[in-house]
Amino acid sequence: MTRNEIFQRIVEILSDSFELDPASIKLESTLYEELDLDSIDAIDVFVQLREVTGRRPDPAEAPQDPDSGRVGHLRGSRGGQGARDRRSRRRKRRLAPHAMSLPAPIELLPHRPPMLLIDEVRAWQGRKITCVSTIRAGDRFVRDGRVSSVLCIELFAQSAAALVALVHRERPGHDDSMGALLGTPQIELHVPWLEVGDELTIECEEVWTIDPAAQLGWRALASR
């Protein structure tokens, strides 16, 4: 494919997946400020581009930096509060059609209280899941009304496990064998602490899989 054909395919993916006007998508467009996308959206595009390249994505090519989210020549940059608000509204619209009855986390995970930290599986579609967790005063790791934001790594791990469990349930003769989080090659925590009352939305999506291993992209957003 020519460079222009690849770009046109990227335009199709962005317009179809995120309801963008094709005319607004340029080579120099920024994912955050101009196209109103985020790092999870960038992973969406990366996965869909497998159809264009005809090969399994190399994990080294996956968008690792949540603030850059580079896809081809589409550059990403950190947006201001207005951009974050727009992304939040769009994320809620995207999740609304999938807010159906889903299994409780206790049905999907081997964890049990007080180590079961995910309160709800809010949405699931294919290789993407959204879970919710609220920080409460009686939680195991809370001290003086707050907990280290490093807790987000465990929230991601439990969300990823719930995703795998849901995917495997669709397979004939599925088993309930457990996996393990092997590492987090890159993580950026924007706040040092989470406070009692914070509700965290954890978005997790598979980037690639080569059984029995997989790489996932994720982020956790807190609201008060």
Plain-language structure description:
This protein is of the alpha+beta class and 224 residues long. The protein folds into 2 domains: 3-82, Non-ribosomal Peptide Synthetase Peptidyl Carrier Protein, Chain A (Orthogonal Bundle); 99-223, Hotdog Thioesterase (Thiol Ester Dehydrase, Chain A). 30% of the residues lie in helices and 19% in strands. It is built from 6 helices and 6 strands, in the order H-H-H-H-H-E-E-E-H-E-E-E. It has helices at residues 3-18, 39-48, 50-53, 81-95, 105-108, 151-169, and strands spanning 120-125, 128-134, 146-148, 193-195, 199-210, 213-223. It has a 4-stranded antiparallel sheet with strand order 1-2-5-6, with helices on both faces. The longest helix is centred in the last third of the chain and has 19 residues, at 151-169. The termini are far apart. Mean pLDDT is 78; it is low at 62-80 and 95-99.
Q: What is the count of structural domains?
A: 2
The CATH architecture of the largest domain would be Roll
* Rounded mean pLDDT score: 78
The number of distinct β-strands equals 6
CATH class descriptor of the largest domain: Alpha Beta
Query: What's the gyration radius in Å?
Result: 18 Å
List keywords for this structure.
single chain, Thiol Ester Dehydrase, Chain A, 2 domains, alpha+beta, four-stranded antiparallel sheet, 30% helix, 224 residues, Non-ribosomal Peptide Synthetase Peptidyl Carrier Protein, Chain A, 6 strands, globular
